[in-house]
Model the fold of this input.
Amino acid sequence: MGRKGLGVFVVSFFFVSFFFSSSLPAAEIGQGVKITYLGHAAFKLVSAQGVVIYIDPYLKNNPQTPPEHKEVDKADLILITHGHGDHLGDAVAIAQKTNASAVAMAELATYLTQKGLKNVVRMNKGGSYTAKGIRVTLVNAQHSSSVTEEGRVIYTGEPGGFIIRFENGFTVYHAGDTAVMADMKIFGDIYKPNLALLPIGSHFTMDPVEAAYACQLLRPQFAIPMHYKTFPVLTGTPEAFLQAMKDQPGVKVLVINPGQTIE
Ligand code: ZN
Done:
């Protein structure tokens, strides 16, 4: 095959693979794991065995969360990336109501204990915790972390991201709030995430171009943009992320609306 022929072959291969991946049965994306986007950085993940995980459950005051997802009746694990209100959200109330374990960085965990939570899992970066066959690793994020109460700033340790490996091996990386960072190459090498949940809004986090660079380092099969549109200062858009990702055909970008579930 000549150079030109190879080019046509490559282009048509990418077209076919893109078309094919777009029409994959839903079950092949999450391999039995249901992923629901709740707006901003909030996600609900349900394992094939029915274990319910909430990540950064900012729901009640989240303008992006659909009304039917504002109340939580069942949760097993609540993962909180850092103390900022748009991530800690309703974690305390949900944990009290459902008896779920709240998983967080050590200082944030102490704060949660002081709020009266009984099931708190204190972690630190690089550490993993396994519950009901699901392994949760707290990893680095380039950001800050605090809670503001009555005008006072309370330190809640360093911020993090989470790598969640399900019973069947399906692995999700939730980046939390972060800048792009070289550590993402290490996450890609060690944990090989199938799905990356990445902030793209800019101002407080990565923007679409930086999130696309993060995908080069992480090399996931799927990427879902998050942390955009909630507040006017978040200017990064899914369209700009798709544009920035156009030379990474190996990563399928899934733009999903709050309330939408993929399997
Ligand atoms: Zn934050």
